[in-house]
Design brief:
This protein is an alpha/beta fold. The chain has 2 domains: 106 residues, Formyl transferase, N-terminal domain (Rossmann fold, 3-Layer(aba) Sandwich), CATH 3.40.50; 68 residues, Rossmann fold (3-Layer(aba) Sandwich), CATH 3.40.50. Helix content is 38%, strand content 23%. It has a 7-stranded mixed beta sheet with strand order 3-2-1-4-5-6-7, with helices on both faces. The structure holds 5-O-phosphono-beta-D-ribofuranosylamine (GRF).
């Protein structure tokens, strides 16, 4: 039996560009999609992604992350108000506290630009190139209190070519991210 039957209410947290948000919104509009994106929150009120959310007529809020608890408390209220079932982090550059994770009490997913458990944290592509890795990639994982350490739901590799630099690798990885985040959400909703 499906653990999460029907269309689920999704909130997305972002910090900037929002290209993953865009791909999730596009996916959510497909006929057989299992999700509705109904709320976008950014810790950066100037985030490009908020403009795209407005254009797509999705409720969105910029809440400065000056004091951790303010952002978290305001977001928790909104997540409750909009009856959110799953929170997806997409380029969200802040770390949510254990208290937030506990209080929200629903699944939180994150997309991370590395083949976890390799390269948790920042500068993933730089580290992969420096270590002469043959592959880079992206992972969608469950968010727990431990940074980038929750169960991996889906990941995909890309080859690192000799000619690659951080920028070219970022571009390649971003392309697969747009493909795998929607797939990972589907997998999460149907395979549990
Ligand atoms: C993505 O590469 C994601 O993995 C990382 O930050 C980037 C966000 O890009 N956490 P965007 O804002 O979705 O365009």
């Amino acid at each position: 039996m499906e653990k999460y039957p029907g269309k689920k209410n999704i909130a997305v947290f972002i910090s900037g560009r929002g290209s993953n948000l865009k791909s999730l919104i596009k996916h959510s509009k497909k006929k057989n999609s299992l999700i509705k994106i109904i709320l976008v929150i950014s810790n950066n009120p100037d985030a490009e992604g908020l403009k795209y959310a407005s254009k797509s007529k999705i409720k969105n809020y910029g809440i400065k992350f000056t004091k951790n608890s303010n952002f978290e408390n305001s977001s928790l209220k909104l997540l409750k108000k909009y009856n959110i079932d799953i929170l997806c982090l997409a380029g969200f550059m802040k770390i949510l506290s254990g208290n937030f994770i506990k209080k929200f009490s629903k699944p939180i997913l994150n997309i991370h630009p590395s083949l976890l458990p390799k390269y948790k944290g920042l500068n993933t592509h730089e580290r992969a190139i420096k270590n002469k890795d043959r592959f880079a990639g992206s992972s969608i994982h469950k968010v727990t209190e431990k940074l980038d350490s929750g169960k991996v739901i889906l990941q995909k590799k890309v080859k690192i070519l000799k000619s690659d630099n951080v920028r070219s690798l970022e571009k390649k990885v971003l392309k697969i991210e747009h493909e795998i985040y929607p797939k990972a959400i589907n997998k999460f909703l149907t395979n549990l």
